[in-house]
């Protein structure tokens, strides 16, 4: 069993309202037509059942049992004796006697009529075949409607508002009854762990994350509201309760972190024995480079250690420079600036606290060492903590650098005050916790596009004569490469890559526009790729 990802698109550049309404009408028509075909399939299947019941009601008929037909004297009746009197077979009999379906009588040499019966086997088979065809065509039309809805984000605004209302309700309930809601979340977690233990032989955190996914943002914003002391009235109009609580917590966690690993940051340029981060012309290629740098540097024998980022310089036709900074996520080593503790500072609502996070300091210092000027366009791409760093630099260093585009994968960045001049492309998985840690959903603006995706088991491949038959609808979902047979955390970058692939395959105008903008930022020839490593010490 493999895994596949289905994506939904929110924000970004949308079509005009009139065009959206036209698409909605087309999608509704396709869905209605599909529903009618499915209903016809049900009717055909019912007809097959009626025929089977009729046949069973006359088991002693010699013709049905395979015996010879018995001559009868009547010249005016074509179908007699063995035909059950039901509306279904009555209609069939009329059709048969008129010759529209088949012949139910044969004239003897003396003008007598020989006995006949309905061809039950053939009729039942035809009814079932028609039912299958109606089902298949109906489902195909409904899938086309779903693709149209997802490609053009036809109901994204309504879904965004509904989710906001659901999160606010969860926040209110959590703040009013923190003990009970926490027990409820614990029960869901234990249930998910228990179910995975039964199904796969061991408890899986991914299962716990999956069952709690609908409630994570509301619950976390409620806990954040309690920690930050946000009033009920203010909480209705704000979404940054988690960030406010992170600001309070980091006042204590940051000094403790400095005691544990020191506060002296050393950033130095390092060499790679292989091309870990190659040239890029698209978000998809940059995501693959990000995955390689974050996950494959040891496996490929690059010589790079943890807490390593890449800074690439592209030379444009007019002689100016453009830059792409690739930032992997948390590595968890004791002396790494990308440790777990730095996430709290990065999530603070205080910009000065965010700037002091070691991971942010490291990336900014690497950008300075690489020679990025304030007037040169920069694109940042990051996974997990790397995405938070990218959003933080765009929000808090807007006067120092020209951050033109930010790409985040699995990063809680909804409440970072990124200026409108910076385009943001965010990729998030619905069933994983990390992207929900901000307790809010991303803004829906023309310059901020979010691809949200769900994970489900993929349909088994159909093999005929050793040849794999392509799936009937390759746009419905994207396969996750090298996915585990069992359920696993979808925070891995390969899931975000599959999500972006599916969003791109849909032909969404919003995705295409963001893709063109990203490619335009780094339009040019790659001149150099610089790797920088960071370490913390006393």
TrEMBL record:
Coiled-coil intervals: none
Matches recorded under Gene3D superfamilies: alpha/beta hydrolase (3.40.50.1820)
Any Pfam family matching the protein: PGAP1
An example molecular function term from Gene Ontology annotations: hydrolase activity, acting on ester bonds
InterPro entries hit by this protein: AB_hydrolase_fold, PGAP1-ab_dom-like
Record-annotated GPI inositol-deacylase PGAP1-like alpha/beta domain positions: 370-444
Protein name: GPI inositol-deacylase PGAP1-like alpha/beta domain-containing protein
